Request: fold
Amino acid sequence: MKGYKKYQAVFFDWDGTAVLSRRAPVDQAVAAMKPLLNQGVRLVIVSGTTIENIAGGRIEKYFSEKELDNLYLGLGRGAYNYAFRDGEPFLFHDMLPDAENLEKIHRICFEVHMELKKRYHFNTDIIFSRPNYCKIDLMPEAVRGDNLFMQENELEMLKESLAAHGIAGGLKRLMELAAETGRRYGLEMKSTCDAKYLEIGISSKSDNVDAIFQRIQEITGLRSEECSFWGDEFVGIEEGIFGSDSFMITELTKGGDFFDVSEVPGKRPEEVIKLGGSIERFIGFLHGQQE
Reply:
């Protein structure tokens, strides 16, 4: 694909950007990644999930050792940062809470859940199994199936639901509630939302991209201007509140180029260029970088 400068590093979301779902074939993405890795371009998968959900938990089997030397994984909302050594992933930086703080995170999320239930009669579900955060399902009745990324009508559904239950301040109020509850437990909580899920924990994709950017910079002298960042969840949920991929914009990375492949209408951070085109757009970009 023409029209892009040549980048030395590409950071990108996985579900909804590089592949349709965690169970979808990865051949198309792998075929586009291999030539760039061979050329020495650093490719960085940044995802809220864990390594078991990236290419069936064995992404290394798709690449040679030489290619893997240039591949990085930033996973679990800041929790896990992997490089590869001798063809195998190794964790070079993590932000995992100890048992005491993980218990606090669980209690904080449960208190948010109960506050919404008691004060607003607003039903939620909680997923407690994540390593450093919890997911509060704000729309338990909405089923995404294998397509775990934000669906086009979910923003309006959430806004209507919050308003119907009298939650003044909308999603911003929910994030404030999480922060207030966290401070009572002595933790600064970082909340993100993709409409269906409010994710509450101690780190975010910002921590992933900063850790990996700094590691590559130490090796190569990489500058942020030589990087591009791709995702499908940059769109604003409410005024001043953007999707989880917006957390790839940090003080270290803000000099890079940011692209959104989502078709969802709405405002993006000023740094982000909305392209649309979904997975095909991103895969096309990777192929264009090979020329």
User: Anything to note?
Assistant: The first strand starts at residue 9 and ends at 12.
